Every structure is written in C-alpha cells, then in structure tokens.
Amino acid sequence: MYHSLKAFYHASLKVGGHLAMYRFPHLKTIQGICSAQLSTELKNNTGFIIHGFSPQDPAHLITPEVTFKYDDSFELKVELSNTFTNSFEALFDNYLKSNEVPQGEPLLQHDNPEACTYENYVNAIQNAQVLMEVGKLKKVVLSRIAWKNYTNTKDIIQIYLGLCEKYPNAFVSLISSPIYGTWLGASPELLLHQSTTSYTTVALAGTRKSKSLIPFTNKELEEQEIIRKYIEENLYTIGIQCDFNPIENFDTGELTHLKTTIKFNADASKRFEVAALLHPTPAVGGVPKISALEFILENEHYQRKLYAGYIGVIGINEMQLYVNIRCMQWYTSSALLYSGAGITQASDAHAEWVETENKLDVIGSVLAPIVK
Hints:
10-stranded antiparallel β-sheet
C-alpha cells in the first residue's frame, strides 16, 4: 500500500495535477482522486470539494479523472483518456516498477507568518471579551499558528498513514494542489452529511484531554448551546426543522468534545445552500457571524486559508463534508500547524491557550522526531 500511495502522490506532482487522499471515520478504506484542473462547477458534478475558511472563497472541485481505492488491495482507475491521464498512468507505472520515487512537494511561496505568542493570544481574548461585555459579540473562535520543524526520517505518505492509524474516528485527508499547496489533516468535525433528502450535521464544542476526570464546565456547555441554537435558527430561515440527539461526549483520541447530532430533511437540491448557510459554524467562527468574522480578520494577523474551511466528497445523491481542523500545511522542512479555541465572556485566557496547545499536539505528534 505505502509504495502505491507514494507513486500516486508523486505522479500527480510530476504532471502538475490536483489530488486528494481521504479516509472516512471508522473505515479502513483509503481513496484518492486526481485531476488536471480544479472545477468551480458543483451542481451535477462529482469529486472532492475544497472550500477555504472565508465565505467569499470559491469552492473548487477535484474531478475524477484518475481515482484509486485501497481496501485489501490497491485499485487504480483512469476515468478519462487524455494527455494528462496518459502521462499520469505512465509515471505511476514507472514508479511502481522502479521502486524509486522522486522527492518533492508542490511548494508555494509563503509569507512566513509569525507564530502567535502567548501575550498576543491573551490580548486578543481580552479584546473579544470587551466587545462581549457590551453585547457586540457572543462567541468568537480565535486561532493561532505554530511552526514545527521535522527531520526527513518520515515522508508525507508515512505521515498520512500515521494519521490514519492514530485517529480512526477522524476524516483523514491529504490535499496537494499547485493552487493550495499541501495540507494534511485529521478532522473530527462533520459539517454536513447528505443522502438524498436526509441530512446530518453536528454541534461540536468544548475540549478536554480524554484521560481527564474533570467534567465539562458551564462555559463549555454554554458554548455548545450557542452552536446548537445557531444551527437550529439558521436552518429555520429556509423552512427546515431539526431533530436533536442528546449531548454526548465525543472521544477523538487524545481529546474529548461535547457533541450534539442534528438531523433534518430537505430537498436534495438544497444541499449547497445548506452548506453555505452553516459555514462557518460558531465552532470555528462565532456569533454574530459577521461581527465574529470581522474580529477574526482584525486580530489574528494571518490568513486562515484552508484552515477551518471545509473539505469532502460529493456524489450525485450524497455528500460528506468535514470542517478542516486539526490540520497542517506542509513545506520543505517545516509544517505550519493550526488550532483554535472558542472564546466566550466566561473564558479563562490561560485555559484557552492550553486548549490550543493540546490541539496542536494532536496533529503535530505525527511529525516526530521533532527538531527542537
């Protein structure tokens, strides 16, 4: 499996393609998709969707020119015969036969954003709480970035397979694109699942270490209720009524969250409208939405790009989208890690910083050995 995945990845790089590898929660099957171009046509199309954090970002689709599925064996399928797929297939076969695959990543120029300091993060929390005191904000998610160097003892496919093994309850993805660069993630958060007229989403909030015996606090329960109510009220604006499961503890490995599963029915043609209505949820944005997004833009001092956007798979009659959290952007000898915490008026600034540290550890642990 390892060599086949590596051959697929590097064949895509060599021909300048856009690819995604993904594994759904609770499953072992790894799938992949690759195309020469990204499409902006979502309706009546299938493939892997990529949408950045900003609601104004365009959604892009990797269409199935070349696909693979690995369950008990690796099965490559070329959906279309053209110059791109012919070149891809020849390179893939050559890499498999030679057992030698070149190194390299689709690197983009980046502006080397500075990692957020403890003081800056605490200051941003205090700024948010000032606005909360006067009613201009109810909740906002403040994120931060951290650079991690790594040795070359692990390549990107080993990192990806490590995420699959370590986080069986997550949607584990690897995205590689000349437009977006390279991203790895293990997201626990479903944005939207649609099968014909049946839909499911979740309200996810609160974070604690899974081994902790400390119960969730009122602050975390309040944060959970804010997200649940936001989803209910926004769907009601387009005539959708929801059914709510009881709140449960959701174990994602090292971390446990509060989760409410939300189900509803709607016409299948509404699925992109529903996704746009939900994104970004208060689990990654805030309430009120516009005020929270403005605050994030003014206080984070870096672009989230694909962090806290959504990714997933769309078919003719079904769709599974996940919020792109617990993720990193991959560079030559370092990775840019992303994490965030939900801030309310009851937040303790130091505790929120610790929460972001714990979330950085979730994704950063697979980079070991880390160069200090």
